[in-house]
Design goal:
Length: about 170
Amino acid sequence: AGLLYVRSGLKLEPVLHGGGQELGRRSGTHNVAGIVGLVTAMELSAADRTDFRRRVGGARDRFEEVLTAELGDVILTVDEPRLVQHSHLRIPGVASETLLIRLDQAGVAAAAGSACQSGAIETSHVLEAMGASEAVAAESVRFTFGWVNDVADGEEAAKRVAAVAGELR
């Protein structure tokens, strides 16, 4: 099940034609179980939002504190509004693609600011929009914390990242 918010006055073409339910936007019987499940998930998410921000934000903040203390010259992108669970950073002199492989071996999941497409590495359009050069993008990494992470996880992840980055320098 999913949810689609449609701005007033916007005309959408239905993916499936037929019965014309939902003002002609879809056809077929409503997925009642899916709708109930989606509403329940949204209610639980809204009720736990404060705890999520505190817990996950704490993990992210501790991660950034420890990593900065361990490496010293980490460049954090914290001056802009961001999701509480995201930490985007750059470790000068450490290529993100190499770092990601080594972090995976160390049990830390992360993503680079670049994507491999047909064997060619291209700069992330998001980093380009932020004004990042290809050199900066090549050293950029994103870490994402979730529901199960806490401050101890943030600290442990930072120590592993610092150890791997230290080996690669």
